[in-house]
Amino acid sequence: MKNYITWLKIAVIFQLLAAAMHSISLFINLPPNNETEKQLFNLMDTYKFDFGMGFHPTMAEIMLVFSTCLCLLCLLSGLLNWYLIKKKVDAEIMKGVININLIVFAILFGLTATFTFLVPIIQIGLIVVFLVLSRITIRSIKEV
C-alpha cells in the first residue's frame, strides 16, 4: 500500500463514517440516568443565556450547533477529498489539500482527546493516522 490514494480513500471513509455516526446524536436524546443528570438536562434545555442583542440560546442549542459543526466538517472534508480523488488531481495539489486536512484534524484530535470521550477520539484519531500515512506516501512518491 505505497499509493497515497489508498490511504486517502481510507481517510475519506473514516471522515464520512464519523459524519454519519455523529449525525445520529443530533436526533437521539438519551434519558438521564439519575436525579443529578435529570437536573442537568433540565437546565441545559431551559436556562437561557443572555448574550445581548436578542440572543438567548440555551446550552442545549449551543451544543446542537457544535455537534452539527463536527458533522459538517467531516462531511465537507470527506466529500472534497473524494471529489479530488475522482478527478485525479495532480499530486502537488493533493499534497496541499492533505496538509490542510492534517492541520485541521490534528487540532481537532487534540481538542477531542482533551475534552470528549472514547468514540470521537478514536474516529478523529483514525482520520489523522490515515491522513499522515497519505502525506508520507505522497512525499515518497514525489521524491522517487
Write a brief caption for the model:
The chain is mainly alpha-helical and 144 residues long.
Could you tell me the mean pLDDT? 93
The arrangement of helices and strands along the chain is HHHHH
Main β-sheet description? none
What is the SS-derived class? mainly alpha
Q: What share of residues is helical?
A: over 70%
**Integer tally of domains:** 1
Total helix count? Answer: 5
Low-confidence runs of at least 5 consecutive residues: none
Tell me, briefly, the overall form: elongated
Distance between the termini: 16 Å
Strand content: under 5%
Total strands: the figure is: 0
Computed CA radius of gyration, to the nearest angstrom: 19 Å
Report on this structure.
The protein is mostly helical. It has one domain (4-33, 73-143). The chain contains 5 helices and no strands. The chain has helices at 4-24, 35-46, 59-86, 91-115, 118-143. α1 runs antiparallel to α3 (59-86), α1 (4-24) runs antiparallel to α5 (118-143) and α4 runs antiparallel to α5 (118-143).
Helix-strand blueprint:
Elements: H1 4-24, H2 35-46, H3 59-86, H4 91-115, H5 118-143
Helix pairs in contact: 1-3, 1-5, 4-5
What labels describe this entry?
144 residues, mainly alpha, 78% helix, elongated
